[in-house]
Write a structure and sequence with these properties.
Number of strands: 14
Number of helices: 10
Structural class: alpha+beta
Oligomer: single chain
Shape: globular
Order of helices and strands: HHHHEEHEHEEEEEHHEHEHEEEE
Length: 378
Amino acid sequence: MSKPFFRRFTKRTMIILNMVMGILFILGCYVKYFDPVSWWFLGLLTLSLPYLLFILLLFVIFWIVAKPFWLLISLVVFATTFSPIQDLFSFHYSPDFSLDKKPATFRVMSWNVELFNILSHKTHPEKRQEMFDLINHYNPDIACFQEVVAGSKTKSINYFPDIINALKFTDYLYSYQIRFDFDANHHFGILILSKFPIARKQTMVNNPDDYNSTFQFVDLCIGEDTVRVFNLHLQSLKFSEENRHYLDKGSKKTQENIKESRNIITKIKTGIIKRASQAAFIKDEMNHSPYPVIVCGDFNDVPLSYAYETIGEGLQNAFVKKGFGISRTFSDISPTLRIDNIFASSHFEITQYTRIKKVLSDHFPIIADMRIITKDSL
């Protein structure tokens, strides 16, 4: 085989591969335009977007060395997806997060607390107190927690009055469905805590009716303004320990690989479709809000996914405004899973944001400071 033929073959192969990666990246960035029921499989692309972007950057390096003209492929892709890329990676490098709040600002925390450590309370009884200490240390004015397990019976391990007394808030809304209780002594739900007066409390349930279908909002009186805060926990993937082990290390047997892969794909498909329905339901509630909105929660989905884009449309993401890098919020499976978010309407200015990289649950807490934009501040 002559060298000219080999070079032509290699160049053509690389051009085709570069174009394929570019098309997949563009499709993944604009999944929001595809019906998630019919096109659910495109949701798989959103999970791989950081890796596809890395591959495209490698192509840039390759073409600089081999044939600069073909840089055009990746450059066209980057130009087409410039705005979505900013949702994937934030480049707002800022000083360390300040515990001191600036005048007229308030602090919002969102955290999937993973049952407040009830499963390991015998082996690590100190962990729940560490979670309380972390919350009090950062001193949020509004806290939205997901996967909260607590009970009102005095024999409850996670006795709800003890949780309230341990944290420095004045009012709350704990939402749950009794038929999905964790056990005879504990509920399983979501919780909003506030240091501001709550004028209205609302729990909502979307169909299909399961534990991921419960959402909540409260109307807070902040000075002379009223703000509506949503707390949500979208459909989880319900990965088992076997699923997670397979994703981490794989299986040695081909038959086991096929079975486990099908199981995981089925769970991903179900999650994408259910989250799309839940997101549409929540967005409709948000659109009917007479007040500026803040949305916190565990989306169980990555940036640019259908659910993320549906809920985030017209809102600003605190991480995008003030974060840096990828900033994963789920501590397992993949280093790119930023699935927890704080969104706010344009009525607010995001002043700082942080992710607390301390493993006390399988999610990292996220915090944003913000202030209400008044006519005087414009």
